[in-house]
Write a structure and sequence with these properties.
The structure holds 2 protein chains of 2 kinds.
Chain A lengths: L1 E7 L2 E8 L5 E2 L10 E6 L10 E8 L4 E5 L4 E3 L7 E10 L2 E5 L3 E3 L4 E11 L3 E10 L12 E10 L2 E10 L16 E7 L4 H9 L7 E8 L2 E8 L2 H20 L12
Parallel strand pairs in A: 1-5, 4-6, 5-8, 6-9, 7-10, 8-11, 9-12, 10-12, 11-13
Antiparallel strand pairs in A: 1-2, 3-4, 12-15, 13-14, 15-17, 16-17
Chain B lengths: L4 H9 L15 H7 L5 H32 L3 H14 L3 H20 L9 H4 L3 H11 L4 H23 L4 H12 L2 H10 L10 H10 L10
Helix pairs in contact in B: 1-8, 2-11, 3-4, 3-7, 3-8, 3-9, 3-10, 5-7, 8-9, 8-10
Classes of the chains: A mainly beta, B mainly alpha.
Chain lengths: ~260, ~220
């Protein structure tokens, strides 16, 4: 599926949409005026081996959008072939918030999840990815399981952040410098961050025994990483950072999308 | 009797006496110790073994091998591309700063050793320590596998020496740890040399969190 967002007068509109396959997008809505809010709907049945989802989002200069998903994306057990999800987010002189709910990789899944954020010019971006390996609420580990999880951020064609997590063996879930046996890992990134934004993000990044969070900044990119036992806790940790930095970065109050509460 | 000048050059390049300030960096160990993740020699061994099997074998070493090949062939563009990609894969500000600070120190040294071409390429070599290491190794005729072994050894030795001070551990325990980890190095190097371009990359959430938290750790002796 590919979505083109453009600014028309005061508002950003969904100017183009190409769709093939099970992905869908709901009608745009405008709870805060000019920003285009979109819900991306994953196939209700989840993905199985051999499925391939492609999402392309293009923001033209001046556009402002917030994209989220009403539910988790599910990757089911596969007896061989790999399920793939490729997401490309192109932002040129525009502002995108990309805040999907988590990807759940069921035990036995074989999945590759790629997200490529392609920033051009004065692009502003706040986004996160949350991966849940296995079903922690049912005490089911991602074992067996195979996952290649990639996040790549480029600015004007130059790599800014490349992150590639590979899980092939059960011990890849337990590495003391890796996941430490915690099944949920989340990454939030935000552009335009200075020292003040970094301090704001750190001030709300409190850890407990079950959820670890660390925030750093490379050039103007804020990077927060969270590792925890449950998706909702990891998301709450990242959402607290989003709430703290959205007003100074985008000039808008942070009102959580209603869908997160359901 | 044969002599092997390349081996001597490798020993020099991997020596902890190089002025790259290796002893100033712990790569998150200082915070991991404060947090209670690393208390014993066994904890340290598991921490470093994990990184040998992940970050080293699927990020540092395969990129080093490509940098070495690029330097041998005089392929400046490839050397620069892999340098940028390595830096983009360093997960925190401190880890990137370490790579660049050590890169600058090594580039200065290569220029003063009159390694041909180093002076003209100093801006590139100074961006990452791995770049200068690969460039020097290629110049001195060190083969790819020993180049990777030397780099991995230097990385291991530096971190074990840092951890001995921080945890703290005895010198003998440190050497026992090093001795056991040496056995993991060949497999990391072999994996690195066999890895395809598309598979390169790593992500260590706990290490990234430790390093991020270290950036504001109240009492710290190390720069990473």
């Amino acid at each position: 599926m590919s979505l083109q967002l453009e600014r028309r007068g005061e508002r950003t509109v969904l100017a183009g949409r190409r769709r093939r396959g099970p992905l869908a997008v709901q009608r745009a809505f405008y709870p805060e005026g000019e920003v285009c809010h979109l819900y991306l709907l994953h196939p209700p049945g989840g993905l199985v081996g051999g499925d391939r989802l492609e999402v392309e989002v293009d923001l033209a200069p001046g556009a402002a959008a917030m994209i989220t998903t009403p539910g988790a994306a599910k990757f089911y057990r596969s007896l061989g072939p790999r399920a793939e999800q490729h997401q490309t987010l192109r932002v040129r002189d525009a502002a995108l918030e990309w805040l999907p709910q988590e990807n759940i990789l069921f035990p036995g899944a074989n999945a590759r999840l790629d997200t490529h954020v392609d920033l051009r010019g004065d692009a502003r971006f706040i986004g996160w990815e949350i991966q849940c390996l296995g079903l922690p609420s049912h005490q089911q580990r991602f074992d067996p399981g195979c996952a290649s999880l990639r996040l790549r951020v480029d600015r004007d064609g130059e790599p800014l952040l490349w992150d590639h997590r590979l899980i092939q063996r059960p011990e890849d879930l337990d590495g003391p410098s890796g996941m430490r046996g915690l099944p949920v890992v989340g990454t939030l990134i935000a552009t335009g961050a200075d020292e003040r934004i970094l301090r704001l993000a750190r001030a709300v990044s409190t850890m407990d025994t079950d959820t670890l969070i660390g925030v750093t900044r490379v050039e103007d990119l804020l990077i927060a990483r969270a590792l925890g036992g449950a998706s909702d806790r990891v998301r709450a940790g990242l959402a607290a950072i989003w709430s703290a930095i959205r007003p100074p970065l985008l000039g808008r109050p942070a009102i959580a999308p209603r869908i997160w509460a359901t | 009797m044969t002599t092997d000048p390349a081996l001597l050059r490798l020993l020099h390049l991997a020596s902890p006496s190089l002025p790259t300030g290796a002893f100033a960096y712990s790569q998150g160990i200082e915070w991991a110790v404060e947090r209670g993740w690393l208390r014993t020699a066994a904890d340290l061994e598991a921490w470093l073994c994990d990184q040998l099997r992940t970050t080293q074998s699927s990020l540092d070493l395969p990129i080093l091998a490509r940098m070495h090949g690029a330097a041998r062939q005089g392929d400046e563009a490839a050397l620069a591309d892999w340098t940028v990609r390595l830096l983009a894969s360093r997960e925190t500000q401190e880890l990137r700063a370490e790579e660049s600070n050590r890169g600058r120190a090594l580039a200065d040294l290569l220029v003063s050793l009159e390694v041909p071409g180093a002076a003209g390429r100093k801006p590139l070599l100074a961006r990452a320590q791995a770049t200068g290491f690969a460039y020097a190794a290629a110049h001195w005729g060190i083969e790819p596998a020993p180049t990777l072994i030397g780099y991995a050894w230097g990385w291991l030795e530096n971190l074990v020496l840092a951890a001995i001070k921080i945890i703290p551990l005895g010198q003998t325990q440190g050497h026992q740890t090093l001795s056991r980890l040496i056995e993991v190095v060949p497999e990391a190097v072999e994996r690195a040399l066999a890895l395809e371009d598309d598979a390169i990359g790593a992500s260590s959430p706990a290490l990234a969190i430790a390093s991020s938290r270290h950036e504001t750790q109240y009492t710290r002796l190390f720069r990473s």
